[in-house]
Structures are given as C-alpha cells and as structure tokens.
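Work Package 4 report. The design task specified in the project plan requires that, given a folded chain encoded as structure tokens, an amino acid be chosen for each position. We show below one input record used in the internal validation round.
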C-alpha cells in the first residue's frame, strides 16, 4: 500500500517537484483539490516558516478529523533583497499591493532598486512536514518539522527570459550568467530554493 503525501497547494505543478526528488516508489502524491479540501487557509503569519506551518497544520487537522493517514507538506517561499531589508519577502506574490501580477511586482522591485549598487538577493523556502496517523487507537497529528532551502544570487538590471514566473526574469543565481527565466526547468529545479528544502527533508527522513 502506498503512503499518501498531501501537498498543501492547488498547483499540480508542485507535485512534480516533490515526486521527482522524493521518488514515487510506495508513495502517492495529491494536491488539496485531489483530496477534496476546499477550506480557505488564512496565511497571516509574519514569516515564511509561520505561513508554512499554518498551511500544514490546517490540512493535517482536516485529514485527522476524517481519519486519513498521510504526510502533509506545505511550503512558503519568496524573494528577499538584502539592500531592501528583505523585501519583498512574505509579500512576494502581492508586492505591488494585490495578488498575482508578476509584471507589476517586478516593476516595483526595479523601481526600489534604482541607483542601488548592492543587488544581492536570495530565493528562500520554508517547508513544513507533519504526519497524520492512528496511534494506539487515537488519531494524532505530529508537531511540524521545518526544513529550509535557499538559492542566492543577484537582481539583474532588466528582466530577461520567458520560461519562469514571479521574479525569475530578474534573478541571476550565483555561479550563472543567466536568469532563472532563461533556464530549462530541470536545471532550475537542481538549484532552486524549494528543491533544496525538499532535499533537506528527504535526507532527514531517510537518515
């Protein structure tokens, strides 16, 4: 019987990231839509870690109430620019004031960095892991375990590339002369912040 991993997201693309690194042998990966979870999750934490725990805990409690054994994985991530005191940070997806406009977010970042020499930055990911299981006849949820991953680099002076999303056209990872948006998906996954967090979790769980 395969062990169920629930990824706390509505984005089916994230499943590929987790499945590729963790492997699919004896594992089944599902999104919130796949399990029928439709509740709103209010991500009002003050850090990536706090928001990741909010997501994993909400989903884990829902599964526990339904007596569904699973591992729950939830990540929160974004871009931190050091010269801007970590902006946009947890507000990465809504930096411009509302959610989901990559162009407006990129434009605001470029304006903020106008004339700034230090353009160093990092993509950061906090990944929360919790397990739902029946122990001695009682359904329980484990305390969250947090895994972190980062990818350091520089903010380019102009957006380049069309293969990424978010701030990818502006972010040049250390050791490369191309933005994330100029990289093939497999290459980006090999150095990405989320990939590094997943690999840290895999090492811990298998160790």
């Amino acid at each position: 019987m395969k062990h169920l991993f629930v990824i706390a997201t509505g984005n089916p693309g994230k499943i590929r990231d987790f499945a590729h690194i963790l492997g699919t042998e004896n594992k089944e990966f599902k999104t919130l839509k796949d399990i029928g979870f439709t509740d709103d999750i209010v991500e009002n934490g003050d850090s990536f870690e706090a928001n990741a725990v909010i997501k994993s805990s909400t989903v884990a409690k829902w599964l526990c109430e339904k007596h569904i054994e699973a591992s729950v994985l939830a990540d929160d991530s974004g871009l931190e620019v050091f010269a801007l005191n970590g902006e946009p940070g947890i507000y990465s997806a809504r930096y411009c004031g509302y959610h989901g406009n990559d162009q407006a977010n990129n434009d605001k970042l470029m304006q903020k960095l106008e004339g700034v020499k230090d353009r160093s930055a990092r993509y950061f990911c906090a990944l929360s892991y919790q397990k739902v299981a029946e122990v001695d006849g009682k359904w329980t949820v484990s305390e969250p375990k947090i895994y972190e991953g980062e990818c350091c680099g520089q903010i380019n002076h102009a957006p380049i590339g069309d293969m990424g999303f978010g701030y990818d056209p502006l972010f040049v990872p250390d050791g490369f002369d191309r933005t994330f948006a100029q990289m093939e998906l497999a290459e980006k996954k090999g150095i990405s912040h989320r990939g590094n967090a997943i690999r840290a979790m895999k090492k811990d769980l298998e160790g």
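Residues 41 and 55 are 7 Å apart (CA to CA). Validation will be extended to a larger panel in the next phase.
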